[in-house]
Amino acid sequence: MTKYFILPAVAASVTCAWAASPIDEAANAVSTLAQPNYSAMAAVDVGSRNHVDVMVRAANLTQKAGSDFVGYYGEYTAYDDTTIVGGGVKLFNYVSQGFGGQAIGTFGSFGLSLTSSDKFDYDRFGGELSFGVMVPISGEQLHIDAGIILRPIFLSSEADTDATAEYGYSLGVSYRLTQNVATYGQYTSEGIWDDSFDAENLDNGVSVGVRLTF
Q1: Torsion of CA 91, 94, 169, 53, to 10 degrees
Q2: Taking Cα atoms as reference points, which of 148, 130, 135, 77 lies closest to residue 101?
Q3: What residue ranges do the domains of the chain occupy?
Q4: What are the boundaries of the signal sequence (predicted)?
Q5: pTM
Q6: Closest CA to 182 of 141, 149, 136, 148
């Protein structure tokens, strides 16, 4: 099974004439790894999930390095029994002040997705929302990230009428080996809440691999 993630957008660069503050440096450390101008990742399955993604950085929305920018995304996810296809708009911010004054990266998205599950004989097409954070742990080398996703049934045109929403969450870690190469691992789980808000697992998996950035 394979996952593809594509984020086409327009690249832009900003040059600052003043010395960066500690929070700017932390923000840049996050944004350089998370959203370079170009990124490609290949990962092998160690559970029930393979993963490949290609990404192009979006244009900055402000003149401050590491600040907000927006892009577009498309994705295809295939687990053992579940397939999810989607795409939409993503917004990023890398100057949020987090633990101990440290900058954290935040990102959110809104799009459309199609879910098909052989396990539950289940299909759904409709809106999806996501939110996540990325935190530098050791300068520019080590980062951890976490994300959540929600696909409400009321934003759907086709769905299992016994379901209220789909949900998902992910936990990952990246370690930069060089300026352009990082190792990466992520655990992802997808599920369904029924009309009584009881949770049923759709699928889950772990993948590890290498990310190239340019």
Answers
A1: 70
A2: 135
A3: 4-13+20-206
A4: 1-19
A5: 0.71
A6: 141
